[in-house]
Amino acid sequence: AQSVTQLGSHVSVSEGALVLLRCNYSSSVPPYLFWYVQYPNQGLQLLLKYTSAATLVKGINGFEAEFKKSETSFHLTKPSAHMSDAAEYFCAVSDLQGAQKLVFGQGTRLTINP
Amino acid sequence: GAGVSQSPSNKVTEKGKDVELRCDPISGHTALYWYRQRLGQGLEFLIYFQGNSAPDKSGLPSDRFSAERTGESVSTLTIQRTQQEDSAVYLCASSQRRDGETQYFGPGTRLLVL
Question: What is the 3-state secondary structure (H, E, C) of chain A?
């Protein structure tokens, strides 16, 4: 069965600092991988996704993630944090067949310090 | 165009009562998913609809949970004899049924069972 582990339920960085949110997955075959962001009292919004094309994926709001098969990782980064980045971030893996339901990590709450 | 909509946005009910949650997917999206998000946790898959195919109910936690979808439109998630552990945010998502296709999420229904 597929699974996702997000290291760190809470991450705090200073405004302007590097953001690094870690995600490791477990899958028997290369999966589809997603990062979603959830702002307070809102639904989930897609940041970026990996679907077996380029391993470095660029998303919205300056975020990017790199698929590393050897490390089974899909970490999310942003070079310079902005106050508006404060939110909850979810990494998810998708089946390749059938329902292609998303299996989510527990989420990482990102706090930006002024 | 309009995104995924859900109603009600909030629902408070008493233990033992039945509740119905509604989801209106994006027009033209053949796939529809229901997920549950408990406080401080990631999302759990509940059920998947694709066109007129039999739904994938593998995520439903008990037989108190059921869902219906009329064609490729509205879906209703019903919870019978609600329990306090059913308290959660119920999120609906829709997508075009293609490999790796993005799931677009609604704002969710926040259910509180007293």
Answer: CCEEEEECCEEEEECCCCEEEEEEEECCCCCEEEEEEECCCCCEEEEEEECCCCCEEECHHHCEEEEECCCCEEEEEECCCCHHHCEEEEEEEECCCCCCCEEECCCEEEEEEC
